[in-house]
């Protein structure tokens, strides 16, 4: 009887703290710099000296030092882990990563969906450093599985109560050719193959036992100060009503349209027991640019960690955050954009909350 009372008290405390009784035993994350919690900084010397995102003031808002996260504090999966009372996800490549039974992060800066051979085939071999594409990250996860749950039926049972976050993927697949000067029409032609590979990766994880899977779309890249600065146009027709570059956002929208269709197809195929959630990063970030005050912010397109007020967006590609000549604002909690291409701790908190509640995630993570 005493044990029952103690258990009920525990459940009530969890409900009060996290807002619901729903729980996961672990979170497993895959993706690029939007999600990386330090996989590129796992050597004995920490982050490599050439990695600007491994230098101060990255990490200062929450951790007080760089952690390999490409922001001033935490990323989306950090907030999801905290909500469910789980430890922050250790980078899967970290030496002595600890107890991966409660979660692990395979995401790594620079990750693409496609393998290097894809870019080489399109003449982009010199335009990309491919570091842990989706297929490789799934291999890293499979290497961890014996430490998590053994094999077979044990893993199926364990992953039934785990949350998987697959992405975003695609951003770097498009950055490489676009920054390399490839015409937009050709880059658009890559989209179906990239989306098919994402869907294939999600399918593989389902076969391994994943049941609750969040699949984020790509961000509205035409709203990021990096793109707005590099591809500045004298024609007003190149911009939409919120000041973002139409052609780049159209690319993102095309990717997301196909991805939503692919997720819906997978959901129909695995209707019994599998719960796929499409997270609409595009819609939320566009709304945050349009009306930052609605999300507790003040600045939509202005960079926090930038180049001393240079240009319209406080961004200079030759004085990026972490480089000489850059400096960070004193109030990052008011900014959407941290460094010109990544978001702030405050923005990621808002996104995580929207994924949980279903505001920009269909269905929401919380049932």
Automatic annotation (TrEMBL):
Leader sequence residues: 1-21
Record's keyword terms, sorted: Glycoprotein, Hydrolase, Signal
InterPro entries per the UniProt record, alphabetical: GDSL, SGNH_hydro_sf, SGNH_plant_lipase-like
Entry's Gene Ontology molecular function annotations: hydrolase activity, acting on ester bonds
Keyword presence, Iron: no
The family this protein is said to belong to: Belongs to the 'GDSL' lipolytic enzyme family.
Name of the protein in question: Esterase
Organism: Sorghum bicolor
